[in-house]
Structure formats: C-alpha cells, structure tokens
Amino acid sequence: MILVTGGTGLVGTQLIYDLLVKGKQVRAIKRKSSSIAMLEKIFRLKNSKADAMLSKIEWFEADVQDYLSLEAVVQGVEQIYHCAAVVSFDPKEKSMMMRINIEGTANVVNVAMAHGVKKLCFVSSVAALGRAEENIMIDEKADWIESKENSAYAVSKYAAEREVWRGMAEGLNAVIVNPSIIIGLGDPKKSSAKLLATARKGNPFYTEGVNAFVDVRDVSRAMIELMESEITNERFIVNAGNYSYRHIFNLMAKGFGKKAPNVHVKPWMFEILWRTEKFRSLFTGKSPLITRETAHTSGKRYLYSNKKISKVLNFKFISIEESIRENCRWFDQISW
C-alpha cells in the first residue's frame, strides 16, 4: 500500500493518477475542508476509464498537523509520498504555512519511522536550496545561507527538509525531490496553476527575470522512479530548464491564442504594485495578487541544474514548450 499526503494538490493529483496507471494500491489523505472535485475533473479529462480509477483510491480525512490522525491511516503502508504543503507568499498565511510545512513534515517523518514504513519521498522545492547570487547555477550541494532573498515559503521548505534529514540520520529510508516552478493542472487560485489561469485571461505584462520550470508529469515520474530505485538519503533537483518569465508568458499566450505580453514591468513599478495590493488586501480581506516577496523575485535571475537526476536516472524531461502547449489545451477543456 502506498500513502499519498496532499492528494488533492497539483503534484498529489498527478502522482495518484500515475500510481494507479501502474496498478498500485493508493491510499490518499485530505483535510476535511479539501475537495476532490478538481482531481476528478483532471482524471476524466485524461482517461476514459477515470471513474474506475477513482473508485480504487482509498480516501481518508487526516491532517498532517495531527499525529494521531496520521497513525490511523498509516497501517499497512509501505511507502509514503509526502506532497502536502502550503505554497503562499501572503504574509497573513505565514504562520499557518510554517505549521503545516514544518510540523506536518515532522509528524509524517515520525509516523513513518514508528510504523516501519519502507521508504519516504518528500516533495521539497528549489526554494529550499536558498537564493545564491544571480546567474550562478544552483545544484543539490548548495548550502543554505540566511538572507533576505529567501521567502517565508523557502524558509518553511528548508526547515521541513531538515526534518527529513533528521529522520534519515535516525534510520529512515528516504529521498527528497526539489521541483522548480511546476507547470500543470490544478486549482487556478492556488500555487503555480495561477500562471495558466492568468495567461488564459490575457496577461499584458512581463518581467526580465529568469527562473526554472518543470512539467508536473516529470515531477511525478521522477518521484516514482526514485522510490522504485535503490537510491536513498539523497535529494534531486527536478527541473526541465531555466527560462525568462517573458518566454514562459509568451508560450502561454500562444497556447491560449492570446496576444503576447508587451508591457515591461520594471522593478520600480513592482514596488508600487505590491504596496497597492497590500493596501487593497487590508480593506477587502482578499489575498494580494502581488506581494513584496513575489515582486522582489520577479526581476531576479535564478538558475538551477538538472544534471544529477539526468545522469543518475538517465532522466529525459518534457520540453517546456510541449508542456505549456498541452497544459493550455487541457486547461481550456476543463469546466471551471
């Protein structure tokens, strides 16, 4: 039996799909407030036999912050894929994000060791590698450096990774994946799926920043291959390549048949925008579209190496052009 935390999220949905296609027994946990409607839509979009697949998922309501609820679902589990996490750059969600990402991971690690789980895969992020100087290729050997360049999300994932490394030191068999910005289908109001949703509406803006991107299918495939291998106690950057935001936004505009972005947002403009959004958020109670953290990184140039996983697993990535083209097509077919 395989347990997937965060089963309704961007990565969790794709992972469950891929595991079921491989004929695996899957148990997935979700919070009481989470809905499986998006997962069901994505399954039905991709597979004519989706209903039969969906019926095979063992759903359990549990919270990674509640150790006892995890104990109730880990019985008979041999592998755990820990995907549950909060991705947010909203200061109002910082405390909640820290609890779920750090304490939740500690609980998953502890319950895995207590119940003899054979192997754990933790979904971290390239953010957990810290922010080096711009235009320097970051790899798995990067040391964390305390810096104002690190977002609260980055701090939470770094601390969560430390919990997994602590488990490894105590005998846990585990691997860590550090995906870059993930392109895939999911809730258009959450995580990187918002990029597709914004592009579909028509986005006239672009920045000169550079970052790393990867298809969600590659993230899932990398996780499964690592879990089925003898590899243990290592981490792997999962990244298809480093691209400018302008190039990514152009590809998305093309995929949705929209006009390419033509308004260059300069750093000083972002300084005005994030302050305006913060003011709007205070009065409306809605999350800001742009925060100080996202504004700060939008013009930066961060590069991440995929040499390790490419060599160790002979891993071939879906091109970012193909990824965006296909995800735009699927995005248009889903009834939101």
How would you briefly describe this protein structure?
This protein is α/β, with parallel strands linked by helices and 336 residues long. It contains 13 helices and 14 strands.
Write the layout of secondary structure elements.
Layout: E1 2-5, H1 10-21, E2 26-30, H2 37-46, H3 50-54, E3 58-61, H4 67-73, E4 79-82, H5 94-114, E5 119-123, E6 137-138, H6 152-169, E7 174-179, E8 181-183, H7 193-201, E9 205-206, E10 210-215, H8 216-227, E11 234-238, E12 241-244, H9 245-256, E13 263-264, H10 267-284, H11 292-297, E14 303-304, H12 307-312, H13 320-333
Query: What is the 3D form?
Result: globular
- Under the CATH scheme, the architecture of the domain at 2-185 and 212-240 and 303-320 is 3-Layer(aba) Sandwich
The DSSP helix count reads 13
How is the CATH topology of the domain at 2-185 and 212-240 and 303-320 named?
Rossmann fold
Structure classification: alpha/beta
Please explain how this structure is put together.
The chain starts with a strand and ends with a helix. It has a domain at 2-185 and 212-240 and 303-320: NAD(P)-binding Rossmann-like Domain (Rossmann fold). It is globular and about 55 Å long. Helix 5 links the parallel strand 4 (79-82) and strand 5 (119-123). The chain has helices spanning 10-21, 37-46, 50-54, 67-73, 94-114, 152-169, 193-201, 216-227, 245-256, 267-284, 292-297, 307-312, 320-333, and strands at residues 2-5, 26-30, 58-61, 79-82, 119-123, 137-138, 174-179, 181-183, 205-206, 210-215, 234-238, 241-244, 263-264, 303-304. By secondary structure, the chain is of the alpha/beta class. It contains 13 helices and 14 strands. The mean pLDDT is 90. Helix 1 crosses helix 8 (216-227), helix 7 packs across helix 9 (245-256) and helix 9 (245-256) packs across helix 13.
